[in-house]
Amino acid sequence: MAIQLAYYRIHRQCCPSLEPISLRRFRNGRITTINSNTSTSDSFVKAFDNPERKNSEKVDLLKKAMEAHSWYGMMASHGQAVRTHLLMLKSLAAEENITTPGIFTDSSFFKVFDFQLTTSQVTSKVGCTSFMAPEKHNTYSLCYSITNEHVDITVFYLHDSKTCTENKTANLLRATEDAMLDMKTLLERSGRA
Predict the structure, then answer these.
(1) pLDDT in the model for residue 50
(2) How far is it, in rounded angstroms, from Cα 75 to Cα 68?
(3) Which of 24, 81, 134, 141 lies at a CB distance of 3.0 to 4.6 Å from 158, suitable for a disulfide?
(4) In what order do the strands lie in the sheet with 17-22?
(5) Which of these, 69, 16, 19, 13, lies nearest to 40 by C-alpha position?
(6) What single string gives the DSSP state of each residue in 116-166?
(7) Which residue stretches of the chain have pLDDT < 70?
């Protein structure tokens, strides 16, 4: 949720985000993905910096967002990722020479797959963070590793060096660190840390 909050603070909009989920429970399973922003995470990030919202409301919204994220991740790890099913149906239609169903040519289909941020958590006991480059221009990739003592974060931003004059990588890294600290403070003040 801190990454979603950081992106919102920078861009003043919620971020279409892609997160890989392991399918290791399946034979030959690799990964699938979920859209890690949801209506509950959108509600949380929009409320967080709103001074008219009580801290208890913000904590409740954070809890709901985290529960939704966990549920979507669990469903995906059990082979129930909607994105994967849609892509498979589109591929099967092409493979079988079936006229492409309208859902796959509708603008909403393309919007669902237009991610601005890809995130990945790498579990490591030594604090090692992986590298994952963005797939297209003007998008971020953020990898992180959580240890008992700290969080390692690596941010990448793919851009055209001739048109991008600001350091978007540093901006997102700083905003993510600030979001984590602000969320920690909120939880401590609410007594729910």
Answers:
(1) 96
(2) 10
(3) 134
(4) 31-35, 17-22, 117-121, 139-146, 151-158
(5) 69
(6) SEEEEE---SS--------SSTTEEEEEEEE-SS-EEEEEEEE--TTT--S
(7) 124-135, 160-166, 193
User: Parallel, antiparallel, or unpaired for β 117-121 and 139-146?
Assistant: parallel
Q: Which residues contact 169 (CB under 8 A, 6 or more apart)?
A: 140, 155, 156, 157
- Give the angle 69-74-76 at the CA atoms, nearest 5°: 95
pLDDT per residue over 68-89, tens digit each? 988 988 888 888 777 777 888 8
The C-alpha atoms of residue 16 and residue 62 are separated, in whole angstroms, by 18
Tokens of 182: 């602000």
- Residue 31 and residue 21 in contact, taking contact as beta carbons nearer than 8 Å: yes
């001739």: which residue's tokens? 162
In DSSP terms, 142 is beta-bridged to: 119, 155
Rounded-to-integer distance, Cα 56 and Cα 47, Å = 11
Q: What is the pTM of this model?
A: 0.83
Q: Which amino acid is at 106?
A: D
Judge contact between 21 and 33, C-beta under 8 A.
yes
